[in-house]
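lol ok so funny story. i was supposed to be doing the assay writeup but got distracted and ended up predicting the structure for this chain instead. priorities right. anyway since i did it might as well share w the group, maybe its usefull for someone
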Amino acid sequence: MDKVIKNFQNISYGPAPEDSKEVNSWIKNLKNPNNHFINGKFVKSSSSKKLNIINPSTNKKIATLSIASKKDVNAAVSAAKKAHVKWSKLSSFDRSKYLYALARLIQKNSRFISVLETIDNGKPIRETRDIDIPLVARHFYYHAGWAARNTNNSDNSIGVVGQIIPWNFPLLMLAWKIAPAIALGNTVVLKPAEYTSLTALYFAELCEKAKIPQGVINIITGDGSTGEHITSHKDIKKIAFTGSTEVGKKIIQTNTNPDKKMTMELGGKSPFIVFEDADLDEAVVGAMANKYRNSGQVCVSANRIYVHEKIYDIFSEKLAEKSANLKVSDGRVEGAQIGPLITEKALEKVNDHVKDAVSKGANILTGGSNDNSGKQFYKPTVMTGVNDSMKIYYEETFGPVAPIIKFKTENEVIKMANDTKYGLAGYFYSRDIGKIWRVAEELEYGMIGINAGVISTEVAPFGGIKESGIGREGASEGIDEYLETKYLCFDGINK
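and the output, tada:
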């Protein structure tokens, strides 16, 4: 939390961004371009369909990859199924050594990975270098510990796991899913997001260096059609998906295999509540860290900021002042704090939400338009006078826009905060311990941040309720998602 706060308090924080020359050279000479990592090696795709990777900061194509066909998916699943026989029977201690090796390699190459992630995704290098990639390594270290401690029999693993990850945290989401799966003896077929596949392919190279046994980790690139081949495959025993609620519902509805397990982390519409007794300055700092990480393109980002009427004006002014001073630019530029939105379509959605709100009475305190840094850049925006007649109130904006809503009473704001189909994360600021317990109990969300704007960590269960998902990732709860529970009842041994 302190690291995140410092990132947004001081635009000169951290050293100058790393040179991109080495990364650009790697992209240019990408090992076996257009290919997939199957059974421990890069293999040629059976498909002729291509996928262009675009740098969202420049709108220029930086790589071309393959869209995996059903045949490619079958090959990956077959390799994973075969590998599971030996991997599941490997001692937990031996499995842990492989996870430790991956963690160390990620640390060793963290500067390179950070630059690659920034070029691929667009987010500021201070986020990739100082937050995301260190957390990737921590996930592998943490689950290496779980692997070493797990004394369950080998047949408690599920088998082959199909994993589909989003574009907003490319390598972090990969670690989030792969680490617990392989720690418990499962094998993996993973598809990275079609917009941001490069760090996943670099991770595949690290798997080679770590000498991960063939077939344990398989990574295939592609689009939605590739994802459908994975989710419908009869030999995949579990699906772990992070993405939109709409796609998640489709996966559930089209699943014809009743014994297939699922973990789903879906959309959110997070409330951020500031009560009249809150530490105002801390609440502003927490809102900044929460709202503007990855330019607001975060499923747990504050999408509705509720502020008590007594402090509404001063909070809004403070947030607007700090937001106006954020540096918008290519993520590789020194001091960058706000990068581009992932696509032009994403930018159009943000513009639509802001224009709709203004047409219905909202006031813009700062921002409210495209930034001149490039086609897909949007200015950090603070809006007051937001109400439930506006799109931005109910729909997930996924951009650097902070809509502020006034409230009078505790009961009123709880009712407003719960008025959504989503239930991923909620936040509130208060120094009244009685109020803290009441509000925490009443908010209908899987995760609650209390006087904290950033809550994600490898040691806590991540996930939501209602239409925000199924199951949990991280902590012991996430471990349980990758095991089959077996009850053994003994009797009559000495008869």
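The chain has a mean pLDDT of 93. The first strand starts at residue 36 and ends at 38.
back to the writeup now i swear
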